[in-house]
Amino acid sequence: MTAEIYDPVAGLLNLGISVVLVAAVIGLLWLKKLGLEKDLAVAVARAVVQLMAMVMIIAFIFETENLILVTGMLLFMMAFAAKTSAERAEKLKNPFRVTFPSIATGSGLIIIILILSGVIPLTAEYIIPLGSMAVGGTMIVCSLILNRYVAELSSNRSLIEAAMCLGADDEEAIMPHIRQSIRASLIPSVDRMKSLGIVILPGAMAGMLIGGVNPVWAAEYQLVIMFMIFSSEALSALIAITLVKKDFDINRL
Amino acid sequence: MNYEGIPLLSVRDLGVSFSGRTLFGGLSFDISEGELVTLTGPSGSGKSTLLKCLNRLVTPGSGTIMLRGVDISLCDPSVVRRYITYVGQIPAMFPGTVAENLSYPFSFKANRDLAIPDFGEILREVGLSSAYCEKEASKLSGGEQQRVAIARSLSLSPRILLLDEPTASLDEKAKFVLEELIVRLNRELSMTIIVVTHDIEQAGRLSGRKLCIGEAGPEEGS
After folding, report:
1. Which of A165, A220, B11, B207 is most buried, judging by how many CB atoms fall within 10 Å of its CB?
2. With contacts defined as CB-CB under 8 Å, which chain A residues touch B57?
3. Is residue B18, in this structure, part of any structural domain at all?
4. Where in A28-102 does DSSP place strands (E)?
């Protein structure tokens, strides 16, 4: 890999150009009265501040190579992802209780398996970036599945009630809608895999190619990452739905 | 077991409150086998909630409901609902044909020991021909859907059929057809039926026992 010397002026200029682009999009959304502009502006500001703060922490962890700090960092990412996802499921009672175990188990278990099998070396440089990809993926799937679950149950209340009145237990009555929620939440992940290499040249592979790494190795590594993320997401979706369905109550729909 | 003297359904001191507001309280009545009971009362008096208490869709705050002397709160809700079936105001049709709608309840654990009846025969009982079996349930008229919903409940051979404003979403003609069906099911099959209605004239046409719930509590009608 070739490493270029970092030029802070060029870096800030690039960042400035991208911020102008996002600002233009926010302006366009405001003109179309979509009501997304405030949410998006906050998200952009948070992305800049959070990433910069995180980079400093990550640089420190990379230097120390302390595994306790690496684990702490991943747990922090999981907790933050769980909180973000829980905000999307505000209709549920204490959604963090669902999102944290789903995200932590879904992403954590896959990372541990990859480390133990030797696919990922036990170093901060690998664990943190790859772990963050798994946590990010599970966060999105968790938000999608909880959001869809609430919507499916609310819009199909009469069918669920009818099934219960005909002798279905809670799980039998909501199962068709649970299946629909799982399918819908995994559509982006499946589409991402289906279009891999043709439509999407994923970030890690693109970075490795830019860095001059052998394309076969880059592709191989990207597949590992992609399968890792998908496994984490699917596992997380199943855990989330298992936890959330325990709280089902027809009278709260 | 000898059930002589034990009412089919016995409700004692039933009360339901939501968010601190009492819908009804101290409600007591008995229903005998083969009775047709119309339940009337002003909007918001808790008529639908009472029906849902009877098949354990809603848990009452106080009181007991006994089916043949057995407290239903001690029974598996799925089993209670198979004996006391409930049909809502707007019939909910599952995706698929009428036959698929009729067979769907038999896929539930609580109903797996039940013999699957002849669906053509069940449809005839509600005034539809067996040709309806192959029709897409969602494409039927409101009146036909309501009859399929009743047939779906009847296929489980319930002891009590609960009908929650069954004609609320129907036109005048379909309303009278359904009223005739309710009376016929009660007379010919000796089916115990509790019908919630806000329509006093309809309660008169159904000509069964009248029970009114309201602010003053339960009252027997004339």
Report:
1. A165
2. 161, 164-165, 250-251
3. no
4. none
Q: Is residue B22 part of a domain?
A: no
**DSSP string of B106-152, one letter each residue:** GGSGGGTTSPP--HHHHHHHTT--GGGGGSBGGGS-HHHHHHHHHHH
- Note down the domain range covering B46: 34-59+76-221
Residues of chain A with pLDDT > 70: what percent? 96
Kindly state the average pLDDT of the residues B72-90: 92
ipTM confidence:
0.87
The model's pTM is: 0.79
Pick from A159, A167, A251: CB nearest B111: A167
Contact B82 A167 (CB under 8 A): yes
pLDDT value, residue B218: 56
Split into its structural domains, chain B has a count of: 1
> CB-based contact (8 Å) between B112 and chain A?
no
Cα separation, B101 vs B78, in Å, equals 18
Q: Supply B127's token pair.
A: 């005034």
Question: Could you give the maximum distance between any two Cα atoms of chain A, in Å?
Answer: 70
Task: Express the helix, strand and coil content of chain A in percent, nearest 5 each.
Answer: 80, 0, 20
- The two tokens of residue B9 are 């359904």
Residue B198 included in any domain: yes
CATH number for the domain spanning B103: value is 3.40.50.300
Q: Would the CB atoms of A166 and B111 count as touching at under 8 Å? A: yes
Whole-number Å distance between alpha carbons of A88 and B203: 47
B36 contact partners, CB below 8 Å, separation of at least 6: B182, B183, B186, B192, B193, B195, B206, B207, B208, B209
